[in-house]
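We modelled each protein-ligand pair independently. The example shown here corresponds to the LFPHGCPZ entry; the chain sequence is given first, followed by the ligand as SMILES.
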Amino acid sequence: MGKELFSAAGTILGSAQRTLATVPAVAVSGNLPGSHYLLLVLVALVLVLAGTTLINYRRRERVQREHLSETHEREQRLRLSLWASNELYWQYDLRSRELETTRVLPDQANDLVVYSILDTNPQIHPDDLQDVLQRLREYLQGKSAIFLSEHRMLGDAGQWQWMLLRGRAVEYSDDGRVVRIAGTARNVESLRELESQRQIAAKVMHSMAESVAVLDAQFHFVTVNPAFSQMTGYTAEDVVGEDAALINSTRHDPQFYADVRNAVRNNGSWVGNMWQQRKDGSVVLCAMQCNQIEQSGAAAPLYVLVANDITERHRIEQELRYLANFDTLTGLPNRTLLAERLSRAIVNARRKGNKLALLFLDLDNFKDVNDSLGHATGDRVLRAAAQRLQDVVGAERTVARVSGDEFTALLEDLHDASEAEACAQRILTAFDAPLRLDDRFEFTITPSIGISLFPEHAQVPTDLLKYADTAMYHAKAAGKRTCMCYTDSMAVDLRRRAHLISSLRRVVERGELRLVFQPQQVLADGRIDAVEALLRWDSPEHGSIQPDQFIPLAEDCGAILPIGEWVLQEACRTLAAWQRAGVSTQLSVSVNVSALQFLRSDLTQTVHAALTQSHLPPSALELELTESVLMANADVATERLQAFREMGVSIAVDDFGTGYSSLAYLHRLPINTLKIDKAFVDGLQLSGDSEDTTITTTIIAMARSLGLLVVAEGVETPEQLTFLQQQHCDLAQGYLISPPLEADACLRFILDVQQHTARHALAQPTTHLDQALPPA
Ligand SMILES: Nc1nc2c(ncn2[C@@H]2O[C@H](COP(=O)(O)O[C@H]3[C@@H](O)[C@H](n4cnc5c(=O)[nH]c(N)nc54)O[C@@H]3COP(=O)(O)O)[C@@H](O)[C@H]2O)c(=O)[nH]1
């Protein structure tokens, strides 16, 4: 427009000149006198000059106006752009040190102008002033092309705000020195805020314990933090630009990772646990969160992965899960897992219409193993037993350890109950072979097994377990190393058993026990050389209970220890009283000792105390131990027996022949007497052709060769007695000689026989059995 105006003015000026130039030509062509003519010319010239001056003046005036308008317009544009950009205008006079800042507004009249003398009324924050002056100095020294400074200045509301100032020299002194600088100032408060936030975010990411990785839309690494490097072993340089599949692990199949990517793409996020592979090839389990981040202005999103290493936590969880479900000693499922599997098995059996069986197995006399051999060996026995059981039952079946020495085997998909019994029999047979504890040490232990069946006996896991347990107790009571299937009557028995156990615990202090004594007669001369002390329990609640009923219970519940101690004291006390009443000091008393008592390390102490209290010599006492106790614990038995031998107390092996010991092995044990079990004596035939006769004969012969005394138990008939005498058996015990007698009665019996044999010995030096027998 300025240009247009200018060209228009030019046009106007051009035509005026042309117009003025034609005036003299018209005047010269008339008939005027010379003076007039000259005057006329002069007037014309004056007019032309005046006109030209006027035209020039007007033209200059117009040009000036146009220039002013143009300047004003430029200024206005500048003003508007300053206003629009929210920038300030400033100028600094180096001579007066006056800083003028102007907030430009569309209407100049409203401009906000602030003057300040730098020294007296600083607009610049005192902390930043030196830095600003330094930058100014550098600019004036020509070290920077423009003056640039970011510092705090007073805002309109009197608050400090960060401003970015740009400026240049705009005025010089005559000697060329800068005297004024001017420029713009921009409020960078929010930019600084953003930058600060960006820096904080970067620092946070840098210092985060979580591994952070930013991926581009193609799942390539854009950046990672140090925690990522620490977790994966990959530095930022290793991974940036690489596909995130670099850290995929083979623990997941490729489809898993593809699914995760799809989920993030489609849903914007994915949360879950993911195995990743470290640079060294090891794996790490990450609790991962992957979020899609939309970038403003960018078409492609970014993905931010935040991951925590939970490998250790996972391991601990696994361990806890294992501990919660498995027995750490044997590695077998525990009671909890058994209950779970049993429930599942019941559901399956119900669906298929099949049967299932639960076998409850308890190791016989396991308590003794722990007591005698120590818990470490006990643990090895349990491990070996668990393995043996699993081997017999089969790896595909659930064998569980439910407590101490109790195991179960779950047999599914049975068609007949007999299959369960057959399996139980296989287990019993398998346990006949010794368990191998290590290269040198073998150990034999038998189980007792109870069986319960679904659906016959119970419908729920707890009942099946309870009934199998009940059946197992009955198998124990039936003599151990056997299996029994649950029957309804067993539950009643079990309640009675619980009552008996509770009464047994108080039996000594209540004085409900007494001893009876059964004489043992020397077959060669009829003397009563020994008596066996036999325990009786007269319970006010339960009546008279036989020892073979209550002693296994007392052994199971541990009550046998105080009971056994009482028996020893009472037997010794009675013998001492008999001696005072005239019984030969050659007479000894034999006392039955249970496995638990024997394996308790303080039995020698108890025996010693009983002998001391009754002033009896050790030779007056014999301890009877069953063959099975000695054989099952051979090593510890040898050690304990040796202690008794050193003490002078004899040892008899009770119920001999019922177990599986070899006589050769017995030779190594410090024992004195073998008691042939009544079962063999029952079958004795004078003709000598029964199996029992052969066994008895062999036992007697071998015992003799080993220098052991032989006592035949349960002798009831004269034929048996004759046979035993013929075989040179040393002693006989049984109803034929005498049933177990109360202490007083036994004393009378012994004194009678003593007198009789003494009289007979005087009259007839050669003793005959018949004569040696007590009078009827
Ligand atoms: N740990 C302990 N065990 C003990 C104690 N007292 C007894 N017992 C054991 O209890 C079992 C049964 O004993 P009991 O009912 O006393 O039976 C004994 C005899 O009465 C019986 N016997 C003896 N002679 C005959 C006979 O001619 N016929 C026949 N039918 N029975 C007879 O035998 C039992 C003696 O057994 P044993 O001990 O094997 O010699 C029994 O195992 C006892 O050991 C105790 O204090 N502690």
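The chain has 27 helices and 28 strands.
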